[in-house]
């Protein structure tokens, strides 16, 4: 029998203190000997109702969560968090160079989306891509090694932070907005092949004003492409707040003739339910749909931006303490007795170990060999000669 | 050798500039000015001089510029003259093309020229060609500026050099400065020019200090567009370059001088119109030519220079084929060892000089 508990997730300020009280009352020290049968296997949570545009109704206001799912979402989000923070350290040590746009704060988006789609679906995003690279199946080791530019990186060290790829994951794209028409194109391919797959096409509030987004909206709607356009609105396009950049900040409505949903991007369950809803919409042949995930990044735009010249430290701290996606999930699970604090600690320790081992690899793996400098210009071609820096330098390129 | 190279590079051109200055008459009361500050001064002075001039781009106002080139300008001139835009390159361009026709003189900043590809149609078809298509009715006094070419570790989509792409098009003037003096004098000329000018800066040069003479620091200091500068006279071989690689050429020349090879180093300053006369004059003196650029070899700046030399009087003075030193013909890789080997290094210049001179 499944026991369900109704919880109001809006009282987050209260639940943390409630949680502590509960633990003290139930004698937390004894937890070690509790068996897993003591935990609630599944619970239903209230989630924030999504505002909708051109839709009769949006996703349901409730989400079911099993213990296994909860622990898995926690683990994935925490891994992304720790991986990004480790990347921050490596960047400050100058072991990572160039551009590095970190995702901490936005984990619920990547994890919520992935939990609602299939591995055979497709996903493309912009340069804040390490989280998605992970959820789409690349290991922390290969991601960090790519950031440090080693041969064990997912792109053999040739791509760097913004250019990591995996099956059904098309990067990692450096030019703002350019990934959007690509995503519509992938959706076109899905339609062409009749494979019932969808393409999740991500962009930010900054890119939301790019002309190519609207061209993509038009084509996707006209041809009813199975494309889920998702705007990760973290309130700032580099140093420019949404109010200073957009005539309309209702990003879920910017698709005009395309239906849209506005989603609480800090709640992994809200993101999951909305993405499921969106995917069903596309798979039913109804055409594209727009989702706006309201989220937040703790770091600045990139590692060269301290992130406090255009927003206050108080604002960042407030989001961290009241809306952190990982804490939200953890508190939900603890207060509905779906897991214990010790379990989470064990997971944290495992993740720290995994990330540390990955960082070790990323710093000790050798750089790619010079012989591979010119490879991968063309696909499926006989080897070609490539001009080096001077006419006597003739290099070899293999497909 | 490596230590010398390091010293020269870390001296950030200042030492080489000082050495040069001692060869010619030294101007009094010179100061060390960083490239970004020279650009800032140029814009500040032109904004003050002419009300019709304004700056528009991403993060140029409140953020003080993505690379801090426009630092302080918004505080001084306000919202009307220094405008933050959304991330919409095409619109920036198309918003800016008519105002020149309405009498204004915009400066459009691209965060890097890689993003200008989003708007390149407007730069070419709306800016470059309009005066011609209108048979003289509609001039377009506009400046497009921003960093161009490779930086450090920014990978394939952010490292391309656009000198050849823009240099290809009639109707545009294309400038690629190297030193602080170049930047200040040429940006002022660009802003005062009544035609569309593409001003290709370099991110790695922004923080490099150069000595600027008192004359160069004055408010009326301009450098004519379309005139190259001989940074270092020499008699054995001509090295022609633009932007950051002028510094590499000077470093290579210093090393080669120890072996008795005197290189004449020409800083192109302007890509279009190309100062062919300066190059020809030099080649007719030295009989050898090596061009150096960061961009890809095919259809590049070096290719154009070689073609022009062949078509002109200097060809008969060449004792060896002209040679191009360029970036490797691949997208820019990320890993440091690969990136370092994808752009011309000083040793590549030295090698090419020696092969050309057959020594």
TrEMBL record, chain A:
Its main location: mitochondrion. Residues 75-370 form the Dehydrogenase E1 component domain. It is an enzyme of class 1 (oxidoreductase). Keywords: Carbohydrate metabolism, Glucose metabolism, Magnesium, Metal-binding, Mitochondrion, Oxidoreductase, Phosphoprotein, Pyruvate, Thiamine pyrophosphate, Transit peptide. SUPFAM superfamilies: Thiamin diphosphate-binding fold (THDP-binding). It holds the Pfam family E1_dh. One of its GO terms (molecular function) is metal ion binding. NCBIfam families: PDH_E1_alph_y (TIGR03182). This is Pyruvate dehydrogenase E1 component subunit alpha. It comes from Myripristis murdjan.
TrEMBL record, chain B:
Its EC number is 1.2.4.1. It comes from the Eukaryota. GO terms for molecular function: metal ion binding; pyruvate dehydrogenase (acetyl-transferring) activity. The keyword Acetylation does not apply. Its cofactor is thiamine diphosphate. Residues 33-208 form the Transketolase-like pyrimidine-binding domain. It is an enzyme of class 1 (oxidoreductase). Transmembrane segments: none annotated. It catalyses: N(6)-[(R)-lipoyl]-L-lysyl-[protein] + pyruvate + H(+) = N(6)-[(R)-S(8)-acetyldihydrolipoyl]-L-lysyl-[protein] + CO2. Its main location: mitochondrion. GO terms for cellular component: mitochondrion; pyruvate dehydrogenase complex. InterPro entries: PDHB_mito-type, THDP-binding, Transketo_C/PFOR_II, Transketolase-like_Pyr-bd, Transketolase_C. Keywords: Carbohydrate metabolism, Glucose metabolism, Metal-binding, Mitochondrion, Oxidoreductase, Potassium, Pyruvate, Thiamine pyrophosphate, Transit peptide. GO terms for biological process: glucose metabolic process; pyruvate decarboxylation to acetyl-CoA. The keyword Ribonucleoprotein does not apply. It is found in: Mitochondrion. The pyruvate dehydrogenase complex catalyzes the overall conversion of pyruvate to acetyl-CoA and CO(2), and thereby links the glycolytic pathway to the tricarboxylic cycle. Heterotetramer of two PDHA1 and two PDHB subunits. The heterotetramer interacts with DLAT, and is part of the multimeric pyruvate dehydrogenase complex that contains multiple copies of pyruvate dehydrogenase (E1), dihydrolipoamide acetyltransferase (DLAT, E2) and lipoamide dehydrogenase (DLD, E3). These subunits are bound to an inner core composed of about 48 DLAT and 12 PDHX molecules. Interacts with DLAT. This is Pyruvate dehydrogenase E1 component subunit beta. It comes from Myripristis murdjan (pinecone soldierfish). The lineage of its organism: Eukaryota, Metazoa, Chordata, Craniata, Vertebrata.
